[in-house]
Amino acid sequence: MPESLTTTARPMIELQQVTKRFAGQAEPAVNALDLQVPEGEIVMLIGPSGCGKTTSLKMMNRLIEPSSGRIVINGEDVTDVDVDKLRRTIGYVIQQVGLFPHWTIGANIATVPKMLGWDKKRTAARVDELLALVGLEPKDYRDRYPKELSGGQQQRIGVARGLAADPAVMLMDEPFGAIDPVTRDRLQDEFLALQEQVKKTICFVTHDLTEAVKLGDRIAVFGQGGRLHQLDVPSKVLSEPADDFVAEFVGGGAAVRRLALVTLDDMPLRDVLKAGAGRVSRGDLVAEVDGGGKPRRWASVPGHEGRDIPLIYVDKDASLHTAVDEMLTHHVPVVAVVDGARRLVGALRWEDLVNERDEVVPTGSAGTAAADAAAGA
Ligand SMILES: Nc1ncnc2c1ncn2[C@@H]1O[C@H](COP(=O)(O)OP(=O)(O)O)[C@@H](O)[C@H]1O
Ligand SMILES: [Mg+2]
User: Fold this and answer.
1) How far does residue 319's CA lie from ligand 2's centre (Å)?
2) What is the SS3 assignment for 48?
3) Is the pTM of this model over 0.85?
4) Do the beta carbons of residue 298 and residue 311 sit within 8 Å?
5) What is the pLDDT of residues 289-329, one digit of tens each?
6) Which is the most buried residue in 94, 191, 260, 324, by most CB within 10 A?
7) Yes or no: domain 11-89+167-261 corresponds to CATH 1.10.3810.10
């Protein structure tokens, strides 16, 4: 997970000074937009209604032609690519799923493979693979018709159809916008699990900040006149809005949202030295780890010398809220952050949280109480 705008991934989607003016409109719909989506990442486009999110997305697969500027996808200027070919190599998922009502679910998912001339066997195998991927039992669903499915299931079919020809790039325009909140939350979780497997480069439009923070590796905040105000990782957009517009847009709930929605791998973590692995200086955080890389105990926690601090670990996919909760519950000034195999990946220290931004902990007194508790008072 990226911690800042610096990334080693190459941009899969790149917009350079892209402007779109519709005839008869005073303001451009999209204004001199520079945007990069690194390979394998999800960039969320967010902003008030009419700020040019959909227009930006539709220019990427040439449903709308830009007035000026350049759009490069996977190294190719999209204006040099045949439109049909371009659309087949980019998945497109929209809110009004647009399933053909008189076609079976299987036929709907197979739309693009059919256009590509895949044979029956390959197409059928792909349909079943995709149904399973989006959590629907192939034999129960492939022969049904769209109206026999719930809204959430239809939306899963929309995602499956977008993925059918295994495109490197997916464009998604408020795909979960019309779904009830409980189902939406589940679809978002499934979507993230799916992305772990398929690792597509995704540009995703939403007007829901919670969705943007939850799903995005980065968030692009748009304002009126199609201007990009900020492009950064979710924690930065919430804690360091680039200007007054973004500050107002992310609003007062930023601190709480950040705690609940930012996962630890979005946070700058401390390095932890392994005990016995080499030279240790005074300020180093040192842990004993077993042969499998799992942390066993703290060997040295700077600022807390001579105190036996229990080693509490938290999964890197857990929220910042969970980490703070663990620190307060166990009265520790630091938690170890581990991966799925419980291997040590870093640490989160209380003082980094309270010093970085005041609003991480809502009141100064809570911070002091916890610091006291952490110091063993
Ligand atoms: N086909 C069109 N013709 C004229 N104006 C359009 C067209 N599509 C969008 N617009 C205008 O462009 C602006 C941006 O629209 P849009 O990209 O749909 O915004 P968003 O998706 O952020 O709500 C709006 O002012 C909208 O009215
Ligand atoms: Mg829109």
Assistant:
1) 30
2) coil
3) no
4) yes
5) 998 999 999 999 988 887 889 999 999 988 888 888 888 88
6) 191
7) no
